[in-house]
Specification:
Elements lengths: L4 H27 L4 H6 L1 H15 L5 H24 L6 E3 L6 E2 L2 E2 L1 H18 L6 H25 L3 E3 L6 H21 L7 H16 L3
Antiparallel strand pairs: 1-4, 2-3
Helix pairs in contact: 1-3, 1-8, 3-5, 4-5, 4-7, 5-6, 5-7, 5-8, 6-7, 6-8
């Protein structure tokens, strides 16, 4: 189902405002000691809201897009499950309680988070001047690694997850790059119609959000 251009533009402006406002409110809430516990409880719902915004503003919602979402969710959850239970992918880590309901020690919302990251990065590069796919995909994977490097210290501090010995192995970043390559390739293979700036705004907002929290 393709949405009319004028309606899509109106939704895009509203979605961008929502993304910015919710990240700003979340940043303020997590930066204040007395409000932090409450805002940490909202993290899974925040991710769900961001997912709904991306899905609702996607230019052409059809079976292909639904399959893309399902595939990224399942693969994202699967690699996290393997990582937690075998320590063979990212390293030795366990999830805390902030990300909500878990299935076999892995938060269900983590599949949604992988969708947010892959879709947003794919859209950002789709709008860039980088034309060759063989360049876009590695650049996108590198962006994901950089974002993870920013997220890691904040995630540990706020009990998203914890690393054994408080040490993040280099294999974590190597595997983020490899998985990013694979999943962003799927985004490219899906050949979605060029999307609005909503995904790109979400990705930039996440960078700013976690960079700001590094100092707290």
């Amino acid at each position: 189902m393709e949405r009319p251009q004028n309606i899509n533009s109106r939704y895009t402006a509203r979605a961008v405002r929502l993304i910015i406002v919710f990240h700003l409110v979340g940043l303020i809430g997590l930066s204040i000691n007395f409000s932090r516990p409450f805002f940490l409880q909202l993290v899974p719902y925040h991710l769900l809201l961001m997912m709904l915004i991306l899905v609702f503003t996607h230019n052409r919602f059809n079976t292909k897009f639904a399959l893309f979402f399902a595939f990224i969710f399942i693969i994202g959850f699967a690699v996290e499950w393997i990582g937690v239970h075998t320590r063979m992918i990212f390293g030795n880590y366990v999830y805390g309680d902030v990300l909500g309901l878990k299935f076999d020690a892995v938060p269900l919302i983590i599949g949604v988070n992988w969708f947010l990251l892959i879709y947003s990065t794919g859209v950002l590069l789709q709008q860039s001047r980088i034309k060759p796919v063989w360049v876009r995909v590695p650049v996108g994977a590198l962006i994901l690694v950089l974002l993870d490097a920013v997220i890691e210290p904040v995630a540990v501090k706020f009990n998203y997850w914890h690393w054994a010995g408080n040490t993040i192995p280099i294999t974590n970043y190597v595997c983020w790059f490899i998985i990013g390559l694979v999943l962003l390739s799927i985004f490219e293979i899906s050949r979605f119609k060029k999307q609005s700036m909503v995904g790109a705004v979400l990705l930039v907002s996440q960078f700013i959000f976690f960079l700001a929290l590094l100092s707290y």
